[in-house]
Amino acid sequence: MNTSSRNILAGLTLIAAGIAVGWSVAQWRAGHLSGSPAATIASAPTERKVLYWYDPMVPAQKFDKPGKSPYMDMALMPKYADEDTQDSTGLEVQVGAEVGDQLVVNGGLAAGQQVVASAQFLIDSEASLSGTPARSLGEGAKSAPRAALHEATGRVEKIDQAGLTLSHGAVPALGWPPMTMTFKLADPALARGLRAGDRVRFAFDQPPAGPTVRQIEKATAQ
């Protein structure tokens, strides 16, 4: 075989090798971009775990399934496991002497425990949601604690077994805007004499079962 033939053979061999390498690279890229199990697993989104569903206006009430809130015309919201689950809970504390602008706490708290000691409306609100009576630290241990009552005015929309549906004004202490929602009745007799369309003044609290009317009366015409 002369030199020219050997050069031609060597060139054909290099071309064949290049084609083989290019085909292998193309197959490898196709498998990793679209067909390989590893790529599929790596690109699969992580599903967030839902702990429960809740109404943001009544966060203490938890539901097992999504759906419409029984308190107002809105959908329940999910509470995810990866969200911050720390919240405020009312605590019963024993207070002692007042030293300057500070108050001695004799019991009910652990060293290093974080607490909210200001903004009484926030303490009342969170305590009423959890069903724990709230009190100001300045009240001491003499007064009997009780759940905070929030007052509002509104109009009766419906009365049924679920309770009393009211279109009420804003409740600043809770950060509530005007809305229409259903309240439970502490005593069914509270609805006696009321009918749809009546203007009323009422007071309610927020036990774990949901907003509950404790006092109600017809509003006098202005």
Fold and architecture overview:
There is one protein chain. The chain is α+β, with helices and mostly antiparallel strands and 222 residues long. It has helices at residues 3-35, 37-43, 120-130, and strands at 50-55, 58-63, 77-80, 94-99, 102-107, 150-160, 163-168, 179-185, 199-205, 212-218. It has a five-stranded mixed beta barrel. Mean pLDDT is 74; it is low at 118-130 and 134-144. Among the domains are: 3-35; 150-218, OB fold (Dihydrolipoamide Acetyltransferase, E2P), CATH 2.40.50.320. It is built from three helices and ten strands. Helix 1 crosses helix 2.
| The CATH superfamily title of one domain | Copper binding periplasmic protein CusF
Distance between the termini: 119 Å
Please describe the biggest sheet, giving its number of strands, its sense, and whether it closes into a barrel. 5 strands, mixed, barrel
Unreliable runs: 118-130, 134-144
The radius of gyration is: 34 Å
Q: Give the fraction of residues assigned to helices.
A: 10-25%
Count of helix runs: 3
Which range does the strand content fall in?
25-35%
Q: List SSEs in N-to-C order.
A: HHEEEEEHEEEEE
Q: What strand order characterises the main sheet?
A: 6-7-8-10-9
User: What is the name of the CATH class of one domain?
Assistant: Mainly Beta
Shape: elongated
Going by helix content, strand content and strand pairing, the class is alpha+beta
CATH topology group of one domain:
OB fold (Dihydrolipoamide Acetyltransferase, E2P)
Number of strands: 10
CATH architecture name of one domain: Beta Barrel
